[in-house]
Design a protein that fits this description.
By secondary structure, the protein is mainly beta. The chain contains eight helices and 34 strands. It has five domains: 9-37 and 530-603, no CATH class; 44-141, Macroglobulin (MG2) domain (Immunoglobulin-like); 149-243, Immunoglobulin-like, CATH 2.60.40.1930; 251-339, Immunoglobulins (Immunoglobulin-like, Sandwich); 342-424, Macroglobulin (MG2) domain (Immunoglobulin-like, Sandwich), CATH 2.60.40.1930. The longest helix is centred in the C-terminal third of the chain and has 16 residues, at 534-549.
């Protein structure tokens, strides 16, 4: 085990903070962070919305931030001062401002200068005075005309190769309402600058028309565009979208459900496929044994280039994924190495219904006894001890905890072995009903809306925020790129690194939504064991990690302070701490203030978020 301390400890600590740095044994390294080490119970997250996703120069961007308590998700009762900055397409700071909360909400308006360049802008929110996880929201600035026809183009698949047949559907509605049934549509497909198909179709009673055409068997660059021209009486509109063509390559990430493949233990493997431009890529393929070529699993993506397959790996066997569609991809993608011992964990339901117990299947090999825990961020809400089993059921009661929960398997020494995210539906859902004073309005006219909030059919008091937007402007953005609505924004967005096609995930009417949630959470391997290496996790992933943990810095004041330990008395205290930690000796730079809560937190593996990396430890 090695340490490197390049500068005196005090020189690296934030002003006003002192820490005890302890050389930790592997057992302590595997312990969890605590509520206090993450900033205390008084932590919060901000959820940012803009009134629309797209603006013209000269218009005003209206922004609102909702501040909720990190664990309870109740409106934050305190008063906060937020620092806001708008960054342009090149990352330059365009403007800055501050905003104060009132009833857990702050608001901000930015008039876009007439000559402001077009592109994607980012509004970032921080709390430098009180400390909290930052938040951000992206929006576009460009010249546009609100269309008379609202349209969206959807491809049947998110990836096509040479010679494949492309299937695309145009969904079109009139901006003032109604379907342009019978409207004539012409679809033009261009690949590498040349027209490869020109297909006519007609809008049906549901506002849809579908076209199919083959791609060339040979393509040089694979740059394709599909453009629809729609004629609805005297109105002529167009809509276009890039054809997702893949030539020879895609980026593929594989995630065993608990983190590892273990010989003899049945498991699921999740995957996420992306184009070189980071767009989702659909695929069909087979998992084969590398040496024999034997097919052991069939693979198909389901949503956003994500999918999963079953596998019981065998010791000493290497596995790889072979792509059948899109055509032309010759590369084989190796699966992670099979480990002889370890643990696997599997959730039995894609989404746990509200109020139901969480059912897991846990497999152990060569581990002995283990503990399975369920946590909401750093707060452990349920646990169970199990023996060395191949795939036994484990049922945990998380009580009132819901949303994204973390299921972890620990060995008898407290080291984490396997982990996955579980989504449990909230039991206290709120219904919001809106009633307008008229059926139709004219641009610029007054609107009167009445909001009614109920839970279980009974009226309840609630904080309601409303945004009124011309939905024709929303249709100028691809549906998958539109910002999430509040439930998804609160329950899922802080827990993942990238969120797209957000409207699907919590849509109770969509039969694919539960599987999509499971695939989203099953491909978040970047945050595995985040609570056991908090400092490293924050250093690697920055803002996204701060939102996952809901870190607040500076921390809450340390309670029960004790006098400074002198040099003469320091050794006895250090020895006591070392005994509690299995014999590890504290590494001290100068006299430090010891406080029994701090010692307890260190013994539990607590770290100080936001601190510079004063030392690194690794098992010998």
């Amino acid at each position: 085990m090695a340490f490197h301390v390049p500068l005196p400890l005090r020189a690296l600590l934030p002003l006003g903070f002192t820490a005890l740095l302890v050389m930790l044994s592997p057992r302590v390294l595997a312990a969890r962070a605590t509520t206090r080490s993450l900033g205390g119970e008084n932590r919060y997250l901000t959820h940012v919305t803009t009134d629309k996703p797209l603006y013209r120069p000269g218009e005003q961007v209206l922004v609102r931030g909702l501040v909720l308590e990190a664990l309870s998700r109740k409106p934050y009762a305190g008063s906060l001062q937020a620092q806001l900055e708008v960054r342009g397409p090149k990352g330059d700071v365009v403007t800055t401002s501050t905003a104060s909360t009132a009833d857990a909400v702050w608001g901000y308006a930015w008039p876009i200068p007439a000559g402001q360049p077009g592109g994607e802008y980012t509004l970032r929110v921080t709390y430098p005075w009180t400390g909290a996880a930052p938040a951000e929201r992206k929006f576009d600035v460009r010249a546009y005309r609100a269309p008379r026809l609202k349209s969206q183009i959807e491809f049947l698949r998110d990836g096509y190769g040479p010679g494949d047949t492309v299937t695309a559907t145009l969904d079109v509605k009139r901006a003032e309402g109604g379907v342009p049934e019978g409207a004539k549509v012409t679809a033009n497909a261009l690949v590498d600058g040349a027209t490869v198909a020109q297909v006519p179709c007609t809008v049906d009673a549901k506002g849809r028309c579908t076209v199919r055409f083959p791609l060339p068997a040979a393509m040089e660059r694979g740059e394709g565009t599909l453009a629809f021209t729609i004629e609805d009486g005297g109105v002529v509109e167009s809509a276009a979208k890039t054809i997702p063509i893949l030539l020879q390559t895609l980026d593929l990430a594989l995630y065993p459900e608990g983190g590892d493949l273990v010989a003899g233990l049945a498991s699921r493997v999740y995957f996420e496929a992306r184009t070189p431009s980071r767009k989702p890529a659909d695929l069909v393929g087979r998992v084969v044994e590398v040496d024999s070529g034997r097919v052991v699993a069939h693979v198909r993506s389901e949503h956003e280039g994500r999918g999963r397959f079953e596998l019981t790996p065998q010791a000493g066997v290497r596995y790889a994924l072979r792509i059948d569609s899109p055509s032309g991809i010759q590369k084989r993608f190796p699966l992670p190495e099979v480990k002889p011992t370890g643990a696997v964990i599997r959730v039995r339901e894609d989404v746990v219904p509200a109020g139901r117990l969480v059912q897991l299947a846990v497999g152990l090999s060569g581990v002995g006894r283990a503990t399975v825990t369920l946590s909401q961020r750093e707060v452990r809400v349920a646990s169970a001890v199990i023996g060395d089993v191949k795939g036994g059921p484990v049922t945990l009661d998380p009580g009132e905890a819901d949303g994204v929960l973390v299921a972890t398997v620990w060995d008898h020494d407290g080291r984490p072995l396997a982990e996955r995210l579980v989504f449990r539906q909230p039991s206290k859902e709120l219904t919001v009903e809106l009633k307008a004073d008229r059926e139709r309005y004219v641009p610029g006219g007054p609107v009167r809306l009445t909001a009614r909030t109920t839970r279980g059919g009974q009226p309840v008091s609630a904080l309601v925020m409303l945004t009124v937007t011309d939905d024709a402007v929303l249709e100028l953005m691809e549906k998958r790129d539109q910002a999430p609505q509040l439930p998804v924004m609160v329950l899922l967005e802080p827990e993942v690194k990238e969120l797209a096609d957000a409207q699907l995930y919590l849509d109770a009417k969509n039969p694919k939504s539960k599987l999509a949630v499971d695939l989203l959470l099953g491909t978040q391997g970047w945050r595995r064991f985040a609570l056991t290496d908090t400092q490293g996790f924050l250093a690697r992933h920055g803002d996204a990690a701060m939102r996952v943990l809901a870190v607040r810095w500076p921390q809450e004041p340390v309670r029960k302070p004790r006098p400074t330990v002198s040099r003469a008395g320091r050794g006895a205290v250090a020895a006591g701490a070392a005994d509690a930690m299995g014999g590890a000796q504290p590494l001290m730079d100068r006299d430090v203030v010891l406080e029994e809560d701090a010692i307890a937190d260190q013994a539990e593996g607590a770290v100080l978020p936001g601190m510079p990396p004063v030392a690194a430890a690794a098992p010998a």
